[in-house]
């Protein structure tokens, strides 16, 4: 690991993490991030599963319920930006614990909501925690992952989100029938509370974050002894990193980061606009097309499960191809094609579920891998800020998408017409990433040449 060795030949934190086998410490940190992602996905998607039942009980229109979806996402936009910046100032670990507990607490509040207005407020507050978790868990997972499998590991963390949504669909159908919609929120409260408690003794702080401060060398060495015990005491911490300007959004628009920041922000906006419109309204689209409620919920499950399958392929490619942005651009192009085919599908549940599975493979699969790709673009000192910023911009799209979906449905747009309109953001996202890939001659090469500074 030549690029991660100090001038005197002593190893850096990066060199030791990259050269050593993956340790129990790293596995524990990554598994905890995966579990947090699962619960984030469950809590985010839970509102879509209970929407028909709440709408019927409280006489809430589809357009009004679109604002409940977007209240969650507005909270996540703010949470992602604020907690992302905080991550580069006070560390990732404590914010992961706080945000996990936070969305669990407000899920309990949703279970106790007495009216539509309370539900709206509690979903917004829970969204702060859901959004704030993302940049912190992605940064910590990326910083404990060896470079050779970094994209794959970060994508595994992101798999938790659709897996949580799939789990939510499987659990919600019988739970709704037997215990009502409030039981789903109670489940979404208990699990994060237990996980947050488990994180207190088990979750380590990011080694790469700690290594930015020479005063924390003892902590760094202590953690490194659990990864590479034979060389931990010789580790060199690059003191000049701690002397740089305080992390802030303005630093994302310096010469080497400005273009990737802008293009990734646009791409995530378009991708999350479409993804959240689909995952929130697919059950409604399917019931309007004549399918049963159980088939409609399975449609949402198929869409999210497809995302898990697709991201496995895309993450494998990100660790291997010379221009990852071009691979992702191809994925979004395929997503546009599959969505167009879905709009032409017949009324058969099997056909609908198969096409939705393939939409998930390309759209959500590329979406998850695009998010993983962002962790490789920003240096450690700005990683939380960078991920938080592009996620905040992206989640603005996820906020608008469900509202636009509800508006289109309230205006009488048919399900197949809504799907045809969905081709537009997928295609534009692919074009934006095609531009980024063309501008970066060899992303693996450029990343390798700047790896010491960035990681």
Task: Spell out the key features of this protein.
transmembrane helix; MFS transporter; mainly alpha; Sugar_transporter_CS; Growth Hormone, Chain: A; 0% strand; 455 residues; MFS_trans_sf
Helix-strand blueprint:
Layout: H1 13-19, H2 24-58, H3 62-90, H4 93-111, H5 116-144, H6 150-179, H7 181-202, H8 207-210, H9 217-224, H10 258-288, H11 293-318, H12 324-343, H13 349-377, H14 380-410, H15 415-421, H16 423-439, H17 443-449, H18 451-454
Helix pairs in contact: 2-3, 2-4, 2-5, 2-6, 2-7, 2-10, 3-5, 3-14, 4-5, 4-7, 5-6, 5-14, 6-7, 6-11, 6-13, 10-11, 10-13, 10-14, 10-16, 11-13, 12-13, 12-15, 12-16, 13-14
**Termini distance?**
13 Å
Write down the CATH topology.
Growth Hormone, Chain: A
Q: Count every beta strand, where a strand is a DSSP E run of 2 or more residues.
A: 0
> What overall geometry do the principal axes of the alpha carbons give?
globular
Question: Which class best fits the helix and strand makeup?
Answer: mainly alpha
N to C succession of SSEs: HHHHHHHHHHHHHHHHHH
What's the number of structural domains? 1
Radius of gyration: 22 Å
Number of helices: 18
The helix content is over 70%
Mean pLDDT figure: 84
* Strand residue percentage: under 5%
InterPro entries: MFS, MFS_dom, MFS_trans_sf, Sugar_transporter_CS
Transmembrane segments: 65-83, 95-114, 120-139, 151-171, 183-202, 257-279, 291-314, 326-344, 350-380, 392-413, 419-439
Keywords: Membrane, Transmembrane, Transmembrane helix
Domain Major facilitator superfamily (MFS) profile: 29-444
């Amino acid at each position: 690991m030549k690029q991660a060795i100090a001038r005197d030949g002593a190893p850096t934190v990066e060199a030791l993490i990259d050269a050593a086998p993956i340790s129990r410490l790293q596995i524990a940190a990554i598994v905890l991030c995966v579990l947090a992602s699962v619960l984030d996905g469950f809590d985010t998607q839970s509102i879509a599963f209970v929407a028909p039942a709440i709408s019927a009980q409280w006489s809430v229109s589809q357009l009004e319920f679109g604002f409940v979806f977007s209240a969650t996402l507005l909270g996540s936009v703010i949470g992602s930006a604020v907690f992302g910046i905080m991550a580069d100032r006070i560390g990732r670990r404590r914010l992961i614990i706080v945000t996990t507990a936070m969305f669990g607490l407000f899920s309990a509040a949703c279970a106790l909501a007495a009216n539509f207005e309370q539900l709206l407020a509690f979903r917004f507050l829970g969204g702060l925690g859901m959004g704030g978790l993302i940049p912190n868990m992605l940064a910590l997972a990326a910083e404990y992952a060896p470079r050779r499998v970094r994209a794959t590991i970060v994508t595994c963390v992101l798999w938790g989100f659709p897996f949580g949504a799939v789990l939510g669909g499987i659990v919600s159908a019988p739970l709704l029938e037997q215990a009502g919609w409030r039981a789903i929120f109670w489940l979404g409260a208990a699990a994060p509370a237990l996980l947050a408690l488990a994180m207190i003794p088990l979750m380590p702080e990011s080694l790469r974050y700690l290594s930015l401060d020479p005063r924390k060398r003892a902590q760094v060495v202590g953690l490194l002894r659990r990864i590479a015990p034979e060389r931990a005491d010789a580790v060199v911490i690059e003191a000049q990193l701690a002397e740089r300007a305080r992390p802030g959004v303005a630093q994302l628009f310096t010469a080497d980061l400005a273009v990737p920041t802008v293009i990734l922000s646009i791409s995530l906006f378009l991708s999350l606009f479409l993804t959240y419109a689909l995952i929130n309204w697919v059950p409604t689209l399917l019931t309007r097309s004549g399918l049963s409620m159980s088939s409609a919920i399975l449609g949402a499950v198929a869409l999210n499960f497809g995302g898990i399958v697709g991201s496995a392929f895309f993450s494998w490619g990100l660790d291997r191809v010379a221009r990852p942005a071009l691979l992702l651009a191809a994925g979004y192009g395929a997503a546009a094609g599959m969505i167009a085919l879905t709009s032409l599908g017949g009324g058969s549940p099997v056909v609908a579920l198969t096409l939705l599975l393939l939409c998930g493979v390309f759209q959500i699969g590329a979406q998850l891998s695009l998010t993983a790709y962002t962790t490789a673009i920003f240096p450690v000192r700005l990683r939380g800020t960078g991920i938080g910023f592009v996620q905040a911009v992206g989640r603005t799209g996820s906020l608008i998408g469900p509202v636009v979906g509800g508006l289109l449905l309230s205006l009488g747009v048919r399900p197949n017409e809504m799907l045809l309109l969905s081709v537009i953001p997928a295609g534009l996202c692919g074009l934006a990433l095609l531009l980024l890939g063309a501008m970066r001659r060899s992303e693996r090469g450029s990343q390798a040449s700047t790896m010491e500074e960035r990681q």
